[in-house]
Amino acid sequence: MATPNHPGNHDHQSKELPQVLVLEPPPIMKLHGDRFLNDFQLLKAWESPLPLDQFLSIHAQSVKALLTPGRYPLTRNILQLLPSLQLVVTTSAGLNHIDLPEFQRRGIAIASAGDVYSEDVADMAVGLLIDVLRKISAADRYVRKGLWDTKAEFPLGSKLCSKRVGIVGLGSIGQEVAKRLQAFGCRIIYTSRNKKPSVSYPYYSNVLELAADSDVLIICCGLTEQTRHMINKYVMLALGKEGVVINIGRGAIIDEKELVQCLVQRELAGAGLDVFENEPHVPRELLTMDNVVLSPHRAVRTPESLTAMCEHVKGNLEAFFSNKPLLSPVMNI
Amino acid sequence: MESIDVLMLCPMISYLEQELQRRYNVLKLWTAPEKSQFIKDHSATIRAIVGDGGHGADAEMIEALPRLEILSSNSVGVDKIDLKKCREKGIRVTYTPDVLNDEVADLAIGLILAVLRRLCASDRYVRSGKWKKGDFKLTTKFTGKTVGIIGLGRIGMAIAKRAEAFNCPICYFSRTEKPDTKYKYYPSVLELASNCQILVVACSLTAESRHIVNREVMNALGPKGVLINIGRGPHVDEPELVSALVEGRLGGAGLDVYEHEPEVPEELFSLENVVLLPHVGTATVETRKAMADLVVGNLEAHFSNKPLLTPLV
Question: Could you confirm whether B261 is annotated as catalytic?
Answer without folding.
Answer: yes
